[in-house]
């Protein structure tokens, strides 16, 4: 079980680092938005590139932030029935939901979005707006975000199995296994 927990810790560390980048993107997108608005009203100058940059940062924030949010157990969950379950029942429900719903859905969406990215990459897709940005890099964020979420799902499965077997206990706030 220790090698699997080491894999889980590596995935958690990766998504934690990506989460820090996402946190910085929130600030950066606000600054770009404010600067873009000030320049537009003060100097009557606007750029589609800056507007698209905001959209790109938001897309990265959403797609990569999902795995970070899942790691920290801050995702949306219907807790009406969940809270009525014992700790073991909660672990089993998390395990079943992640194994049979989250991971397959994420892998399917990553697989289906890959051709969307490849088509944009093959043609060197650019924005249709004057001064716009290239599009294919942001389209890569879609499959990459789903793969990161699936990886975090694998990490959560490992932690739940370890907790069910008594190797670790799960810290309810941050989903960190403790020994």
TrEMBL record:
Residue ranges constituting the Tripartite ATP-independent periplasmic transporters DctQ component domain according to the UniProt record: 30-161
Transmembrane segments: 20-41, 53-70, 91-114, 134-151
GO molecular function, one term: transmembrane transporter activity
Cellular component terms (Gene Ontology): plasma membrane
Principal place of residence: membrane
Record flagged with keyword ATP-binding: no
Entry superkingdom: Bacteria
Record membrane topology: Multi-pass membrane protein
InterPro entries associated with the record: DctQ, TRAP_DctQ
Keywords recorded for this protein, A-Z: Cell inner membrane, Cell membrane, Membrane, Transmembrane, Transmembrane helix, Transport
PROSITE patterns: PROKAR_LIPOPROTEIN
Subcellular location(s) per record: Cell inner membrane
Protein family: Belongs to the TRAP transporter small permease family.
Function: Part of the tripartite ATP-independent periplasmic (TRAP) transport system.
The protein's assembly and partners: The complex comprises the extracytoplasmic solute receptor protein and the two transmembrane proteins.
Name of the protein this chain belongs to: TRAP transporter small permease protein
């Amino acid at each position: 079980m220790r090698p699997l927990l080491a894999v889980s810790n590596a995935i958690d560390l990766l998504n934690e680092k990506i989460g820090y980048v996402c946190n910085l993107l929130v600030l950066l997108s606000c600054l770009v938005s404010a600067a873009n608005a000030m320049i537009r009203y003060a100097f009557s100058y606007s750029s589609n590139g800056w507007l698209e940059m905001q959209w790109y940062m938001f897309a990265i924030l959403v797609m990569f932030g999902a795995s970070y949010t899942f790691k920290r157990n801050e995702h949306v969950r219907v807790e009406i029935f969940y809270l009525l379950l014992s700790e073991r029942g909660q672990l089993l429900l998390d395990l079943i939901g992640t194994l049979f719903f989250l991971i397959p859905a994420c892998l399917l969406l990553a697989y289906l979005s890959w051709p969307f990215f490849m088509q944009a990459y093959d043609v060197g897709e650019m924005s249709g707006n004057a001064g716009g940005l290239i599009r294919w890099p942001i389209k890569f964020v879609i499959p990459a975000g789903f793969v990161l979420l699936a990886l975090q799902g694998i990490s959560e499965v490992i932690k739940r199995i370890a907790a069910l077997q008594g190797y670790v206990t799960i810290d309810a706030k941050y989903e960190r296994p403790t020994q």
